[in-house]
């Protein structure tokens, strides 16, 4: 664009010159320039750009280059205060109107707006849609200074398919009716294709300029850890080891308070944040975190939306998140400075029950009746999170695939890629699985993964017999594999996009073009699989309990040795070494030498101590012989 842009007495010959002048940047980030150009041409916009990608500048710079006032709809007080402060620090005339202000302050700021002294006005949707503001103040603004555009930040809140749906956001469609000639800009960090379409429809965007940036954040390391009885000790060690600022997310306010208190007792500068705290306490705690007065913020998802702290080094989900979008956005608050950062999810099946209970509480406040559609959506979203947590494929591939972005895998920045499980050729099993889905489709039917697996394994349930699926050619052809193995394959097929899982409230499987390539022997299917236990059906529960008990005991031994040497426990052995010891239970130093992390020095220093502890444990538990070794079949390099 070669035209000149004027603001007061300042004239710019290029957008880059304006960018440098107002924000100090020499060049735009990928995609920003085209978005700004479209905004200056008064187009409606839909911008999907990951956290830290520079969304805010896409509406802030046009606001400064166009005549009139830019109205920015923002969902949180903390968010608008943070952005306004950053703008004011750059000498940009911005302000906000929210419930934190006194009546006198509201009048003073409103007067500044009407006098044309403000270029960006941040408001919450509730205030924007209040009758006095919507039908009184806004028309005054339009007539006296003009409204240059309306920017709706966190636009995924518009959609019931989004991870943070807010009913009041639905009412923003009234803006188009009240101000039909004012361009509308919708911006968000996370949106699936369905959410994007919903945003366009709900806000009545007219032939919008759409920009969808890559969702990939290559500087983030993703991992999932089992949440055991010793999870807190592992969390504490992780915080100490990672260092820097971090956020720990929990599901409940009670868990937030308890965890923050325990961390404080163990010498971690941590503070709680949740919606139940007094607003002044929340603000104070947030400011201390942003200013590095404390290291860790323990919070519910009420914290973090739009926080502009770039140097968060880790984000830990101590409880299971409710959906992939939420997890992506919350974990994405790490490493906004593009430096390396760590994202950990602690996974426990017990968390599933907690979220299912929360989903069951979705009721109509006026009638008390269950909101079945919302419950179905939330349940489906939860299922995708569980699939992610239990997956053996590249975490990044799963995340990006959820948002419709292709990624080859092998990211080298997640636990599954850095510590890969065995790879096996499961093409034949995949053909069986997809054939079963195809048989359903031939009858005009579609079912979910659980039912498909039941048919494959020849279950004689009332539903299968009633549907006549015991007469399908695929009935019972999968008896040679366990339910978990079939589920691992099913998840992998979804993650590799070799079969589709619908996203309409009911999770059913549908074949796509790639599915048929597998069925026609045109595509091979390789799956990273969990190691199978040779005697899982007979001794699985007992073995798991015994392994866990030994693991905790080895942790206590490690802690004692570490205290004697005044070093952190991980200096003695990392958790992965202890876990392997608990599973393999080496009883001689020769066996101990085969454990991950045991070199010659560790062998001489700790070999006798740890093998003696393992032998004592086995004797106390009445265990004899050699622990069952895991077996891997058909391993491929």
UniProtKB/TrEMBL annotation:
Keywords (A to Z) from UniProt: ATP-binding, DNA damage, DNA recombination, DNA repair, DNA-binding, Helicase, Hydrolase, Isomerase, Metal-binding, Nucleotide-binding, Zinc
Cellular component, GO annotation: bacterial nucleoid; cytoplasm; replisome
EC class of the enzyme, as a word: isomerase
One of the GO BP terms on file: SOS response
Domain spans labelled Helicase C-terminal: 234-378
CDD domains hit by this protein: DEXHc_RecQ (cd17920), SF2_C_RecQ (cd18794)
Signal peptide segment: none
SMART domains according to UniProt: DEXDc, HELICc, HRDC, RQC
Listed cofactors: Zn(2+); Mg(2+)
Highest taxon of the lineage: Bacteria
GO MF, one annotated term: ATP binding
Annotated catalysed reactions: Couples ATP hydrolysis with the unwinding of duplex DNA by translocating in the 3'-5' direction
Domain HRDC residue range list: 544-624
Family: Belongs to the helicase family. RecQ subfamily.
Name of the molecule in the record: DNA helicase RecQ
Species of provenance: Oscillatoriales cyanobacterium SpSt-418
Gene: recQ
């Amino acid at each position: 664009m070669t035209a000149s842009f004027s603001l007061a007495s300042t004239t710019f010959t290029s957008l880059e010159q304006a960018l440098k002048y107002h924000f100090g940047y020499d060049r735009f980030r990928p995609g920003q320039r085209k978005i700004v150009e479209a905004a200056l041409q008064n187009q409606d916009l839909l911008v999907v750009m990951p956290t830290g990608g520079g969304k805010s500048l896409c509406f802030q710079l046009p606001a400064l280059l166009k005549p009139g006032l830019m109205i920015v709809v923002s969902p949180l007080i903390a968010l608008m205060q943070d952005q306004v402060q950053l703008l004011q620090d750059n000498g940009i005339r911005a302000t906000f109107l929210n419930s934190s202000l006194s009546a006198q302050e509201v009048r003073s700021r409103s007067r500044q707006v009407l006098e044309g002294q403000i270029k960006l006005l941040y408001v919450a949707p509730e205030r924007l849609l209040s009758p006095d503001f919507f039908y009184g103040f806004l028309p005054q603004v339009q007539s006296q200074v003009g409204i240059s555009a309306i920017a709706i930040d966190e636009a995924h809140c518009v959609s019931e398919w989004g991870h943070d749906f807010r009913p009041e956001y639905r009412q923003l469609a009234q803006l188009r009716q009240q101000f039909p000639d004012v361009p509308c800009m919708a911006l968000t960090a996370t949106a699936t294709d369905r959410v994007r379409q919903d945003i366009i429809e709900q806000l009545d965007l007219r032939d919008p300029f759409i920009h969808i940036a890559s969702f990939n954040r290559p500087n983030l390391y993703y991992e999932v850890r089992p949440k055991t009885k010793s999870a807190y000790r592992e969390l504490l060690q992780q915080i100490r080891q990672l260092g820097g600022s971090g956020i720990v997310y929990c599901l409940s306010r009670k868990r937030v308070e308890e965890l923050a208190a325990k961390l404080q007792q163990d010498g971690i500068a941590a503070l709680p944040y949740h919606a139940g705290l007094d607003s002044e306490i929340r603000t104070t705690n947030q400011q201390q975190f942003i200013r590095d007065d404390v290291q860790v913020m323990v919070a519910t998802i009420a914290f973090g939306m739009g926080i502009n702290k770039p140097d968060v080094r880790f984000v830990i989900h101590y409880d299971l998140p409710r959906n992939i979008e939420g997890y992506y956005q919350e974990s994405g608050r790490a490493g906004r400075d593009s430096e390396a950062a760590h994202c950990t999810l602690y996974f426990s099946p017990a968390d599933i029950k907690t979220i299912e209970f929360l989903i069951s509480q979705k009721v109509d406040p006026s009638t008390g009746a269950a909101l079945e559609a919302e419950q179905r959506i939330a349940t489906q979203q939860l299922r995708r999170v569980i699939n992610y947590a239990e997956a053996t494929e590249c975490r990044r591939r799963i995340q990006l695939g959820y948002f419709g972005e292709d990624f080859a895998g092998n990211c080298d920045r997640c636990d599954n890629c850095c510590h890969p499980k065995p790879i096996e050729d499961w093409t034949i099993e995949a053909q069986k699985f997809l054939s079963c889905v195809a048989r359903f489709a031939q009858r005009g039917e579609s079912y979910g993964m659980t039912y498909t697996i039941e048919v494959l394994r020849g279950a004689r349930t009332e539903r299968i017999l009633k549907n006549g699926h015991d007469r399908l050619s695929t009935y019972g052809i999968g008896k040679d594999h366990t339910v978990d193995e079939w589920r691992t394959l099913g998840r992998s097929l979804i993650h590799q996009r070799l079969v589709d899982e619908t996203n309409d409230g009911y999770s059913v499987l549908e074949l796509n073009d790639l599915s048929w390539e597998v069925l026609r022997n045109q595509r091979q299917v390789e799956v990273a699989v969990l190691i199978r236990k040779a005697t899982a059906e007979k001794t699985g529960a007992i073995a798991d309990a015994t392994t866990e008990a030994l693991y905790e005991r080895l942790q206590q031994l490690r802690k004692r040795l570490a205290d004697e040497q005044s070093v952190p426990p991980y200096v003695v052995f990392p958790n992965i070494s202890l876990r392997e010891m608990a599973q393999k239970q080496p009883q001689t130093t020769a066996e101990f030498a085969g454990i991950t992390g045991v070199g010659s020095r560790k062998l001489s220093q700790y070999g006798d101590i740890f093998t003696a502890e393992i032998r004592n444990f086995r004797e106390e538990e009445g265990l004899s012989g050699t622990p069952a070794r895991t077996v891997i079949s058909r391993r491929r390099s």
